[in-house]
Design brief:
The chain contains 8 helices and 7 strands. It has a 5-stranded mixed β-sheet with strand order 4-3-5-6-7. A two-stranded antiparallel ribbon has the order 1-2. The protein has helices spanning 6-15, 23-35, 38-54, 71-74, 89-98, 125-132, 148-161, 186-194, and strands at 56-57, 64-65, 79-86, 103-107, 139-142, 167-170, 197-198. It is α/β, with parallel strands linked by helices.
Length: 199
Amino acid sequence: MLDSIPSLTRLIVELSKFPGIGRKSAARLAFFILRQSTTEAEALAGAILDLKARVRFCSTCFHITERDPCLLCTDPGRDDTVLCVVEEPQDLIAIERSHSFRGRYHVLHGALSPLDGVGPENLKITELLARLKGGTVQEVLVATNFSVEGEATALYLAQLIRPLGIRVTRLAYGIPMGSDLEYVDEATVNRAVEGRRDL
């Protein structure tokens, strides 16, 4: 039935590419957009295009930003001796929401997952090691997710970083195994950062 309306079918197909959005949810969203005014639909389309045109990765920490280097990298009030390594920009945002960390960040853009074809060369590990050779970092807080992939990434990073004479710590296990930092409440993230330990 919907095949007779190609523009609606196209929108449903595009929306169903979003994570966690199946064909039914995509159809609901498409019908919602259809009911919106042209002005509202143009505002949504404009916001998406603006995001794609303006947002990029910071050349230092690889967080998302509209300005390079990003505000976190240029903030003079941050501690240059501690570097927090996270998997994704959403994880960085979760830690920042907790107001428990005042150091610098490095975003890997994923975790090691050989079964999915994600090896060290697919992550920002080379860039991380280059930053560490600058000599100011004394501690690396590995804040990868508590999943099999996150734990493997943490252990791999520890093996690379320890020989550089830098302390390697891990978030405390206040965060449940298998969970993503993005969905953990601020208080739990705060306790995990404060209770970090050597890895």
